[in-house]
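dumping this here so i dont lose it
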């Protein structure tokens, strides 16, 4: 049953509207002034709102503005006994769905309600569409095996929070894609996604990279530089290969996570930061802790949520999907007419021992597209993939 709110300071108008609407089997709620109407519209969901313009204290236009600020999606139908074209235009410009003059006409009311209900349906469809697009964007992880579906479900649950996530898995399994999916499905999606490869930055430079530096902090520091923590503030900071971070940098990262403040290299001023941290590693950090190579307290700060990305050899049923995905992408990138893999070729790919995981699969697909004919066969896979077959 559709629910309608009537906001009007005249009891006779409220009663007349209620009788009409309840006869048409609507559920009706009333508010005798603008403030009460706003409070009800903010706390409950209504399919349609009727609102008088001329009311004491909080008038209809103020109610309309309040509903807009509260992001109430319900269509608002303004009613007034002192209406004119200028008032109607003003109400529509402020976001009203329609304007009806008093005395109220039964047919006019019913037609307007029908149109408003159609709008409500469109709004709901738009919400569903946005959610679907958002989900699709964040779930760009290709695969339908049980383990991959579990990861997708985990990402959808965790992404809206600010919980720190530690992503583990072998090289080439797609840990960065998990991090990006967490960002794309989060409330921070419009903010920066900043990536730092801790293994690719020399130990003496990692602190400057993460926390920035002041001018003159060291020989080549000719000007002040913001670090990745500052640049990612409001967004997501992805610390890739965190297991390779130096002990000194680990200590400073721990402080940043504990206090949400950093200090630039060569500086003394505390700088507030607000970045969600997603870290990734191909190492067993528990073993690294036992060896004294990684701080246990930092591990517990990072591993609020653990997501392990499986090796490609553990999800061979996803290889046909991944192959067709890379096939379309690579043909488009190279401007090559679309090729195809026959069933035997796909089966041959599934038998390969993928030590390089998805990264290796992509490279081999690209090689096969360039070197093979229009239909790629199992013989092409054996010739050009140079595979080590699964025993």
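and the seq i came up w/
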């Amino acid at each position: 049953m559709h629910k309608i709110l009537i906001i009007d300071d005249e009891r006779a108008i409220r009663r007349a509207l209620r009788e009409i609407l309840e006869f048409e089997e609507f559920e009706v709620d009333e508010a005798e002034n603008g403030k009460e109407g706003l409070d009800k519209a903010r706390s409950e969901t209504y399919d349609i709102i009727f609102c008088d313009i001329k009311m004491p204290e909080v008038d209809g236009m103020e109610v309309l503005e309040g509903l807009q600020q509260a992001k109430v999606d319900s269509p608002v139908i303004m009613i007034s006994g002192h209406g004119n074209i200028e008032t109607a235009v003003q109400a529509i410009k402020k976001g009203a769905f329609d304007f009806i003059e008093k005395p109220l006409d039964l047919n006019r009311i019913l037609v307007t309600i029908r149109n408003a209900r159609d709008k409500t349906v469109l709004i709901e469809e738009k919400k569903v569409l946005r959610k679907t697009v958002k989900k699709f964007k964040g779930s760009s992880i290709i695969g339908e095996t049980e383990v991959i579906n579990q990861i997708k479900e985990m990402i959808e649950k965790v992404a809206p929070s600010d919980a720190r996530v530690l992503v583990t898995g072998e090289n080439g399994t797609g840990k960065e894609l998990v991090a990006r999916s967490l960002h794309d499905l989060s409330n921070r999606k419009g903010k920066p996604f900043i990536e730092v490869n801790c293994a690719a930055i020399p130990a003496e430079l990692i602190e400057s990279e993460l926390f920035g530096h002041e001018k003159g902090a060291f020989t080549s520091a000719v000007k002040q530089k913001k670090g990745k923590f500052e640049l990612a503030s409001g967004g997501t900071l992805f610390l890739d290969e965190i297991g390779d971070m130096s002990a000194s940098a680990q200590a400073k990262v721990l402080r940043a996570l504990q206090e949400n403040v950093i200090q630039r290299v060569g500086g003394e001023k505390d700088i507030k930061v607000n970045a969600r941290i997603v870290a990734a590693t191909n190492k067993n950090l528990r073993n690294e802790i036992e060896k004294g190579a990684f701080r246990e307290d930092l591990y517990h700060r990072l591993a609020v949520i653990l997501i392990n990305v499986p090796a490609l050899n553990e999800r061979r049923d996803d290889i046909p999907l991944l192959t067709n995905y890379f096939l379309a992408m690579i043909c488009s990138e190279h401007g090559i007419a679309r090729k195809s893999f026959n069933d035997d070729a796909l089966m041959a790919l599934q038998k390969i021992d993928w030590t390089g995981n998805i990264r290796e699969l992509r490279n081999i697909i690209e090689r096969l597209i360039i070197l093979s004919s229009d239909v790629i066969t199992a013989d092409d896979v054996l010739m050009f993939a140079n595979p080590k077959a699964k025993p």
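The chain is about 45% helix and 15% strand.
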